[in-house]
Write a structure and sequence with these properties.
This is TRAP transporter substrate-binding protein. Among the domains are: about 140 residues; about 150 residues, D-Maltodextrin-Binding Protein, domain 2 (3-Layer(aba) Sandwich), CATH 3.40.190. The chain is built from 14 helices and 12 strands. Strands 1, 2, 3, 4, 5, 6, 7, 8, 9 and 12 form a 10-stranded mixed sheet that branches. It has a two-stranded antiparallel ribbon with strand order 10-11. Strand 10 and strand 11 form a beta hairpin. It is rod-shaped.
Length: about 475
């Protein structure tokens, strides 16, 4: 039996199945691509990011604080994790940061930082503590102010050149030529040796107010040389204005000892921030998450490590000496954006992409069903032709054959309609109705003529004589 489009019925159905398979394959591939894109975006947002942080020295308070933060982040399954990279101190940490061996570094703000280094969080303030024995040696004048240090020898705790640089700034702003004061640096493990050195007239330490090293150094010098006299830095405000990296600060009375009181009263000085820095190029989203995690864990860690309670937000002003990273500033200023806000462009792009894919899918389906649309038109025309055949059928068997054939055409037409190749069945329904009327009329005529008789069309009979 010929198919409605003139080819074999099996070939027509095979073509329809192939088109359906192609469209289904295209739809599945499109869905997979979109799903992969959405999952990639979600994975990018939710994946834990590990950042290496250079910190030192080993066994120091900075390393202990960073390790506590790292453990807290890992325990809470935080979005950002910290991996400590132990160095020899603040200066080596900056070198590791500069060499891209670490993503973050714990350092002092007055060191030689890379141009792209920006602040994430201030861990503490390092204050300058300057003191001299109350009683000078034989033939020496007692030191009461910084100006008395001219021609004297000062022991500086710590090997970092930043301490000497800061001391020179204090001397210069106080009216003392830095080269008129001799400086000798001592490692933190040489405090006893420094305290016993009679050639030293004064001592300088830079660290947090509760620094164990500073406290031990003051106690050691007091035991070896007598009670200390703390020298105020009266030019702290001037230094802060001239060198914004420094701040004026006060040392509270009795902070280093209560019995006896050391110092007896508050003392003016200067401070410099000890902080975490990150590269400007580091993702702002990552830094925002990291800053949020640091301040969220601060209070909990401070219960076991009081040093964590000193963590502060960096200066977010645009003219800050060391600018805050845009990610940290977003959290501190409350301008950090939500997932929807950060990815609104991608979401709208996805909506437009889906709309375009929908249009493309409709065109592709239309392209695949173009043969079926032609076949649908041919089936309608064949059904219309069969109306005329039904009216001229000579036997009931011929009508049955026509009915059988129209049933196949109807089935194929409905399949094309289901595939979208035919959008409107109304024309075909009209033809089908005409065919059924023709069959009914012809069947009634054949039945009335009797078996084996062929009714004569009245139009073919000779005209009756008047």
């Amino acid at each position: 039996m010929a198919s409605p489009d003139g080819s074999g019925s099996e070939s027509f159905r095979t073509r329809r199945r192939r088109n359906r398979a192609r469209f289904a394959l295209a739809a599945v591939l499109t869905f997979i691509l979109v799903a992969v894109g959405v999952l990639a975006l979600v994975f990018y947002e939710l994946r834990p990011v590990s950042l290496k942080i250079a910190v030192g020295p080993g066994g120091g308070d900075d390393l202990k604080l960073v390790q506590a933060l790292a453990q807290s982040f890992a325990r809470d399954r935080a979005a950002v994790r910290l991996v400590p990279l132990v160095t020899g101190g603040a200066t080596p940490s900056i070198e590791a940061f500069r060499d891209h061996k670490a993503d973050l570094a714990v350092t002092r703000a007055d060191l030689d930082l890379p141009a792209d280094a920006q602040a994430v969080a201030v861990l503490r303030k390092n204050v300058v503590v300057l003191w001299a024995p109350s009683s000078a040696g034989k033939g020496k004048k007692s030191i009461k102010t910084i100006t008395d240090l001219a021609g004297r020898r000062v022991g500086v705790i710590g090997r970092t050149p930043a301490n000497v640089k800061l001391f020179d700034i204090i001397l210069a702003e106080s009216g003392v030529a830095p080269d008129k004061v001799q400086k000798e640096q001592f490692a933190t493990g040489q405090l006893a040796e420094m305290a016993r050195d009679p050639s030293l007239d004064a001592f300088l330490a830079v660290g947090p107010l509760d620094s164990k090293i500073t406290g031990e150094a003051i106690a050691a010098t007091a035991k070896a040389r007598g009670e200390p006299r703390f020298l105020p830095v009266d030019v702290g405000d001037a230094i802060a204005k001239k060198y914004p990296i420094y701040d004026s600060e006060e040392i509270p009375g009795s902070i280093f000892s209560t019995q006896p009181a050391r110092p007896e009263d508050k003392v003016d000085t200067v401070s410099v921030n000890h902080l975490i820095v990150a590269r400007q190029s580091l993702s702002s989203v990552t830094v925002t998450k990291l800053t949020r995690q640091i301040f969220a864990a601060r209070q909990q860690i401070a219960r076991e490590m009081p040093l964590a309670g000193k963590i502060e937000a960096p200066d977010t002003e645009k003219d800050a000496a060391l600018p805050a990273h845009r990610g940290a500033a977003a959290f501190i200023d409350g301008t950090d954006r939500t997932f929807m806000e950060r990815n609104s462009d991608y979401i709208w792009g996805l909506v437009l992409l889906l709309s375009g894919l929908g249009s493309a899918g409709a065109w592709f389906r239309s392209y695949l069903t173009r043969d079926e649309r032609e076949a649908g038109a041919k089936m309608r025309d064949r059904a219309l032709a069969m109306v005329a055949k039904a009216r001229k059928a000579e036997t009931l068997e011929a009508l049955d054959a026509l009915q059988h054939e129209i049933d196949k055409i109807l089935r194929d037409t409905l399949d094309c309609y289901d595939d979208g190749a035919i959008e409107d069945l109304e024309p075909f329904s009209l033809v089908l109705e005409q065919f059924h009327h023709a069959v009914m009329d012809r069947r009634a005529a054949l039945s009335a003529s009797g078996p084996g008789l062929i009714p004569v069309d009245p139009a073919t009979l000779p005209a009756a004589h008047a």
